[in-house]
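Action item from last week, closing it out:
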Amino acid sequence: MSSPKTEFIVEDLISKIYQKRYSSGKLPPERELAELYNVSRYTIQKALKQLIGMGLLNPRQGNGVFINEKMSGNPLVFNSVTQVPYKDLKSQMLYLKKVPALPKLQRIFNLQDNEMVWEFCRIRIVNYQKTQIETGYIPCTLFPVMTSEVIEDSIQNFALEEGYRISHFMTNYSSTQLTREEADILNCRKNTPAFLIKSRGFLRDGSVFVSSEIIAINYECTYVVPFNKNIFHKRRRPG
């Protein structure tokens, strides 16, 4: 987790980027930012590293850090996992098996009665701490072969390597409490508050390539969404 100072700088810079405060499209130098926020250059570097990881900034060697204009006008979602470098993220597979697609999964993946899906369960480890349990499904029609290496690496990356074009993800957040089994896996107490995160990944043709549920502890999520006046007024209308 980032320090409070780093989190403040990240959120403040995001706010200024969305407010178009940097008309040149370029951030001030690190030294100037350090003086502005009264912190060390190291703290500034950590904040910039997070923003680069989110895709908001592009560093250009010898020329500074520039704003990614393609991102600055779109909704932005970042959480306590997306802010962690891949080298500090690990997945440990609990199981991977091929199972018949039950009616709910048939509807999600548009499958027939006799078709199969891959069912997997993995633990996400962040900075050497178990923080998430993910149980998910992948249609065998799209991925006839699946391995533990893929599950412990990146399903999204595997889909791209297989030539699929990913469109978007739909995610639902709700609150829950850890069961005894979940608590034992995450080294917590039973009934510890947690997030239940349901997610589906869609390809460009509209088909779902992965559906999963994640139980997460020590989880934070921040949304930056541009104000839509038309939607606001529609919601205000009576009836």
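Closing note: The domain at 4-75 is CATH 1.10.10.10 (Arc Repressor Mutant, subunit A).
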